[in-house]
Amino acid sequence: MSTEKHFNLAKKEYERWGIDVEEAFERLSKIPISIHCWQGDDIGGFEVNKSDLSGGIEVTGNYPGKATTPEELRMDLEKALSLIPGKHRINLHAIYAETDGEAVDRNQIKPKHFERWVQWAKKQGVGLDFNPTLFSHEKANDGLTLAHPNPDIRKFWIDHCIASREIGEYFGRELGTPCLTNIWIPDGYKDTPSDRLTPRRRLKESLDTIFEAPIDENYNIDAVESKLFGIGSEAFVVGSHEFYLSYALKNRKLCLLDTGHFHPTEMVSNKISAMLLFNDKLALHVSRPVRWDSDHVVTFDDELREIALEIVRNDATEKVMIGLDFFDASINRVAAWTIGTRNMLKALLYALLMPHVQLKQYQENGDFTRRLALLEEFKTYPFGAIWDEYCKRNNVPIKEQWLEKVEEYEATVLSNREAKIHSDVH
Ligand SMILES: C[C@H](O)[C@H](O)[C@@H](O)C(=O)CO
Ligand SMILES: [Mn+2]
């Protein structure tokens, strides 16, 4: 049976519950996912004086073919974008600046170092988001940045964050869509601190200085990302959830929740409605923690669906800014982007195809039997046929057919990079 026939039959099943599939497509097409560039090169970046990855995050695996230049990274992103339905955004880090061979330290980065990214984004029709990089640098080697006791080091990182906001503003002006500039810092201690307040006070003061200059929110929106622990900051993280939740609320900033930054049984899906009652917007880094903040590729699992359900059923598709944050170097990196982003979109489509009106009513009536029955039965509704049609209409491969494209790209492009590396070495 053709995709269209499958779709028409499936559509009828959803219509029996009053669900408008065409409207779901329309709504989904308006939800941009911010795709993180750093999956493409294992968070390496292109600095002239490049440092090893630090900050308590880890990329494991050595799958061949990673991008080693901005051109390669953009090319790989284009390939992934060609396999993902809809128009999305690309999320950059400061280490992806292009300085034409000049060593430019982080406190000196300027919009001009991202001109090529902006030109490329215009061509692709994508928005850009941004992150200052407060790790993989000699001034972050002791695991402290904005909360550092040394005022000179603090100032260096404050200046980097100020420069980053200006780059965000430049993206927003150039691309006509506000850039989300998100600050995440690794600061913390391996072992039990003897003073938690002082580093937190310093972080608060650093943030106050960073955000002193107002920037038009039509161009740049600021976000702050909390964390529970990292490698080397097991006992204490300065920028904890409570810290940033309070800071964001008081200073009208966006709180960014990374799904890997909480206790293993603590669910981000359960936080969205609570936070939306007090915040106009919030931001997400959708990741997949496996036993720790391991940043595995996002799968179509229970928590992903629950996050999407919370966004959709609370009418928050314009309030929750969805970004991805995973980095797996043990598989093809273009496939990693494709799988993770398609899964995020699938989860949103799944959520858009639920009978929310009835489900909410059942709960209000105390009819928990119907609520459970329907939530479970909809898991096996013919969702796949609707997803295939969405992919078809967006001119991207249906089902696993995208994999052939990635394999072809690996054979013709990625494997040549390996050959080049080897011939350069010998
Ligand atoms: C590279 C990212 O900015 C980083 O992953 C950060 O967002 C994070 O989640 C750290 O654990
Ligand atoms: Mn994150």
How much strand? 5-15%
The stretches of 5 or more residues where confidence is low (pLDDT under 50) are: none
CATH architecture: Alpha-Beta Barrel
Mean pLDDT score, rounded? Answer: 97
CATH fold-type name:
TIM Barrel
Q: Helical residue percent?
A: 40-55%
Radius of gyration, whole Å: 22 Å
Number of DSSP strands? Answer: 10
Distinct compounds present:
ligand L2XQQQDX, manganese (II) ion
Cofactor: Mn(2+)
Main location: cytoplasm
GO molecular function, one term: L-rhamnose isomerase activity
Pfam family, one: RhaA
Structural write-up:
This protein has a single domain, classed as TIM Barrel (Alpha-Beta Barrel), CATH 3.20.20. The longest helix is centred in the middle third of the chain and has 25 residues, at 151-175. The model has no long low-confidence stretch (mean pLDDT 97). 45% of the residues are buried. Strand 8, helix 8 and strand 9 form a beta-alpha-beta unit. Helix 1 crosses helix 13 (383-393), helix 2 (21-28) crosses helix 10 (333-352) and helix 8 (269-276) packs parallel to helix 9 (302-313). It is of the alpha/beta class and 426 residues long. It is 44% helix and 10% strand. It is built from 14 helices and 10 strands. An 8-stranded parallel sheet has the order 3-2-1-10-9-8-6-4. Strands 5-7 form a two-stranded antiparallel ribbon. Bound molecules: ligand L2XQQQDX and manganese (II) ion. The ligand C[C@H](O)[C@H](O)[C@@H](O)C(=O)CO binds next to loops. Keywords: Cytoplasm, Isomerase, Manganese, Metal-binding, Rhamnose metabolism. Catalyzes the interconversion of L-rhamnose and L-rhamnulose. It comes from Lederbergia graminis. Pathway: Carbohydrate degradation; L-rhamnose degradation; glycerone phosphate from L-rhamnose: step 1/3. It is found in: Cytoplasm.
